[in-house]
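User: Hi! I'm a student and our assignment asks us to look at how structure tokens line up with a sequence. Could you show me two examples?

Assistant: Happy to help. In each example below, the sequence comes first and the structure tokens follow. Example one:
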Amino acid sequence: MTVDAELPSGVPGIDVPRLAEWLDRELPGSGRIGAIDLIAGGRSNLTYGITLDGGRRIVLRRPPLGHVQPTAHDMGREYRVLTALGEGTAVPVPRTLAFCDDEDVIGARFYLMDYVEGRVLRSRDDAKDLTPEQANGLSEALAGALAAIHTVDVKAVGLEDFGRPSGYMARQLKRWGKQWDGSQEAIRATGTTRDLPEYDRLVSRLGDRMPADAPARLVHGDFRLDNALARLEPRPEIAAVVDWEMSTLGDPLSDLGLTLVYWAEAADEDRLPVGATITSAPGFFTRREFTERYAALTGFDLADLDFYVAFACFKLAVILEGIHARYLQKATVGEGFDQIGEGVPILLDRAHRTLDTGTI
């Protein structure tokens, strides 16, 4: 690589000359940096596309800008799980290239991976060119990707110490409960009150229904169609599952529950102000069909699935309440934040309805 004045100008979060020097040492012969662009940003980790000589594309991931909690944006953990999964498992992930723990290079730890061609499918507009047959194939492929994650032999790939599966769901209930309490304190500080009595009743019901510990399995933490890169030709497939920052060892059905909460159907009466709507398009599995396919692939006992769906509603309600608190504090930028709080009672009601009826 030639480190010279022809390097592209930087983008926020990247010191291009320092990165070029580091690449020259760690990936010799990779070529000069021709362009850098931000692929995805926000509250999550930042993703940049880097174009090298000859048109080769690679991807850089780093934490958000500004002060962050290291445990919430641990590049080393994300690099480790991707590397482990890329070595002989059926989980579709990008190939990792290099990891940098020297924060002096670009101001934070980061890693590099191959660029994967694929589409992020989220809205009904994204489904305009999808046939029902392709939508059905994508549903099948996504269920297969989730099953592949949950059936990885964590010991064989060196991830047996990647988390603490014992007491996982109980810790999750406590953790998200603390998040809720913090949001309520922030809301009260704005002079606003929230009357949501169904929250406390839901926490009590979830505590009473807490399942026994599941065997240690890999959990993605935020598994949904728009956290994957999809290809439609020559056949629908998941090219890569991305955004592994919340991955750990835990109860795999917590992943399935959250996937089902995000999975919209055409007949749904209560629409959330967040999440993908594309799965309500013709041809996509219903939640029941997705569940049945997952069960067939894993052989897992889903007798308590209503608990995990209700828990996922609780978790997402807490997340939305936190966003609502930031909106009231005037700490959000962009459109649509005024509607986020409306999703909280919808999720709480859905959780109770799920526990009452056992339907997902």
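Example two works the same way, sequence first and then tokens:
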Amino acid sequence: MPGKLEIADEAYQRPSSRLLIDCDTGIDDALALAYLSSLDHIRIEAVTCTPGNIDVGQVAANNRALLTLCAKSDIPVLIGAREPLEIPLVTTPETHGPQGVGYATLPDPMYPEPMALDAIDYWIEAARGNPGELTVLLTAPLTNFALALRREPRLPWLLRRVVIMGGAFYYQGNTTPTAEWNTHVDPHAAKEVFAAYTAAAEEGLDSSKLPIVCSLDTTERFEMQPDFLKKLSSESGCAEPEIVQASDPEGTLSKSSNPLVRYLSDALRFYFEFHRQYDQGYIAHVHDFFAAGVAAGTLDYETRPATVDVETDSPLLFGTTVADFRGLWGKPANAQVVVANNPEAGFDELVQRLGALARKLNENS
């Protein structure tokens, strides 16, 4: 593996990039959404909601509340699927809390009336109306995207890029010994998505349009320590440092005067406690932030082409992702799998951007 990482697509650094974000918010989804809200060169076209960490109604409520906090209440929030394609929905309150964002709470926002379109119709109309312009960031089960591909098989050509947080290849799963959470929630959807890109590759889809897959192999390298919140409060200009320690009583709430720092601290504390409960230490794996940085073009990474498939029949390996990097299946690559990244630089970027947003929100309040 080369020692120096490069941003894989310099075009992401142009003045404006347009994103469609699909999430199941989720503590690390919330962190990713706040981060993207802090970037001046990113235009978030819509945030669509998929059931996963919590039910889709709560996902939508979380997204509306957080976007309002980040002064982005003009961004549409839409609901698509309400359950996985073929199996019952399983949520994870033990990981993300009963409302999905740990101990964090926000008031119900005064949000614009919902759009008539559902999330899937919105994606299709947006892609058709803006061919080659939109990047899709998927930090949830792939249910909505699979349904969109069913309705519009030309989406791989119409979209600029797709970034997926999901899967585990040469790495232990976080839901079963071999399966990652997003894929395990709806493995049939993930299988359909990768099959659609195999078909597209066979028709000559350019490799630059293949999904970039951020799997546990590289997202778990983004291991946040509680000291991150102290750095964030300092960067935000808070008078008092935000100190979160493993010795604190569980459920201790932030007293920060800055609403964004307080929200993120309360959410992340729950995540630290969850990881400790599963013998991983008082840390938090912030998978979705890394995927967001890939989509935004702000974080360094390297990829390898692979043909990805998902196991949906075996009870033992249900939801397991498999990547053929050597062409043993005789099929074209249907994904670009991230194989290297730079967590230290990524956390520096996150502190700087979120700190600037927190300062700005305080000044405008």
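Here is something you could point out in your write-up. The longest helix spans residues 343-364.
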